[in-house]
Amino acid sequence: MNPQTRHFILGAAGHVDHGKTALITALTGTNTDRLKEEQTRGISIELGFAEFDLGDGITLGVVDMPGHEKFVKQMVSGAGGVDLAFLVVAADEGVMPQTVEHLGILDSLGVSSGVVVITKTDMVDEDLVGVASEEAAELVEGTFLEGKPIVPVSAHKKVGLGELKEALKQEARVLPRRAEEGSFRLPVDRVFTMPGAGVIVTGTCWSGAVAVGDKLILQPGDKPVRIREVQVHGRRSERGSSGQRLALALHGVKKDDMDRGFQVVAPGAAGLTRRLDIRVDMMPHYKGVLKNRQRLHLHHAGREVLGRIVLLDEKELGGEGGPRTGLAQLYLESELIAAVGDRLVLRFYSPVTSIAGGIVLDASPRSHKRFDEQTLEVLSVREDGDMIDLFRQNLRAAGLGGLPAAEASDLQDDPTALHVGKLLYDRELLGDLVEQIAELLATYAKRFPLRMGIPKEEARRKVKFKGGAGQWSALCQELAIDADWAVAGDRICSVGVGEELGPALGSALQAALHTATDELRTFGLNWPGQENWAQESKIFSKAANDPVLSEFKPSEVMRHLLDHGMAVAVSNEYIISPEAHDDLLARLREHFQASDEMTFAGFRDLSGLTRKLGIPMLEYLDQADVTIRQGDVRVVGAKLEMME
């Protein structure tokens, strides 16, 4: 396939039995009525497809959309992804109800170009052809077909086909080339199996490109699939892209796993949602009223769901002289696969008739209140604002929850954003967070002056950070780079004050700590226990009667000494000085140089510890890999060997 060929999708729409299928057959040589029932009844029931080479490097994938009112769902399915259309009006009947509805649907779905075709001209005289042409011209005023060519044809006698082909070529020639940028999306309109190929899905590629071997996602269901084969307009190809009719052979799913309205997408391209923010536009032909909380049928990408509409900036739409456009939120009764910019059609619940079109402004919004100024401002930026402004608005709205980086792949380097893990944060909000943490730290230091700092988990709760502990830890590490506080283990603490990382201490507290440290050294390995230390130590007795030393309590002193490396924890209730610890290791090395093993009695003689303290000490040494227990004896551990 010539890579320079320009591919577009042509939609054929119009009232039932106005000659769409016959016209497509005459133009392309392909009868798009493939079902036996279609051929028997003479009407299209399902979507039909054909390829039409216009020449000059332009190829159209033609979608024949059913005209009967019972099959509007199929028609809407085919209209998605259409670049240009021809609207068929039979000369012998003129404009009919489905002509009007199909035009409204095509206009609502954003079709940008096309041609009006007056068919069956061989069945009437020239005057009736002129009347039908005038009716059609009046009908398309204010739509994408206003001012477009009106071409009379007869498929039966093959009259006017050349003129129609030339008109379509001129319209297609000025269309912008379909870009392959963006994430791949293919709404499925047919599913079947073939021997040797397995499950096949067909559809019009809405965006992006696909190649053999690509790993994609089937939605809904979030099922991973791999592309075994790609066909473009019925011919095998290594890749397919936006604007082409594709058939994909899928590995990883069964035929029963999917149906029309499913989508094959790149990861993250479109998600499941039960709520949409949209701009809703009433169709010109509909003169009734759309009321708040009205129940509707929603048609989108071949899928139909029920839902209710909440009008956000108008009391109601339509009616005599009423507004015909507004902002709205849709609450869906079933999940839909949607993305920002998608087009959709709204039809009344009963009687079922097309009334409005919509464009998705937010595919996963929060619930909104009606007439809320902030909500309307946000949606206004989403609709008309600069992409950078919209990104920054979303970033700020995400707050400390963060914005998924995958949703802003092109703007992750924006100077207002800080990238931490898989999330983006607004730097201005983080500046406020840095100050908030500093205030928490100062308050905590006043309450607990001997502690190194506030636990990270406590700080997370106090600032009401909704993310997990892992994300909080990563964020704190990033913020600490330019903050006047630091992260040390499970704590957030002040920087550059005191002997280590920790709060500044007054002279009275410093003197008391030196006394406590000296006392700990005098204990050696024979720790008296926290309670006995408090009762026997003069410094704790003094602190109990001194307001300046009100926080000088054994538990706080122990925590401070451990945090600052001035004590070693043997167990939760047993600490020793670093000097006593190092002396014990030296004696153990000396013992194992003379003997391969050590009994408890030998350890008791070596350390001078009774069973009460000797057992927890030995368990500590085992856990630290200083010694290894083998039955009732210990042998040298790897850590002690490394110290030799």
Task: Give a structural overview.
The chain contains 19 helices and 34 strands. It starts with 5 loop residues before the first strand and ends with a helix. With 644 residues, the protein is α+β, with helices and mostly antiparallel strands. Residues 34-46, 67-71 and 497-503 have low confidence and may be disordered. The strands form nine sheets. Strands 7, 8, 9, 11, 12, 13, 15 and 16 form an eight-stranded antiparallel beta sheet that branches. It has six domains: 6-173, P-loop containing nucleotide triphosphate hydrolases (Rossmann fold, 3-Layer(aba) Sandwich), CATH 3.40.50; 185-265, Elongation Factor Tu (Ef-tu), domain 3 (Beta Barrel), CATH 2.40.30; 271-380, Translation factors (Elongation Factor Tu (Ef-tu), domain 3), CATH 2.40.30.10; 386-504, Winged helix-like DNA-binding domain superfamily/Winged helix DNA-binding domain (Arc Repressor Mutant, subunit A, Orthogonal Bundle); 507-576; 578-642, Arc Repressor Mutant, subunit A (Orthogonal Bundle), CATH 1.10.10. Helix content is 32%, strand content 29%.
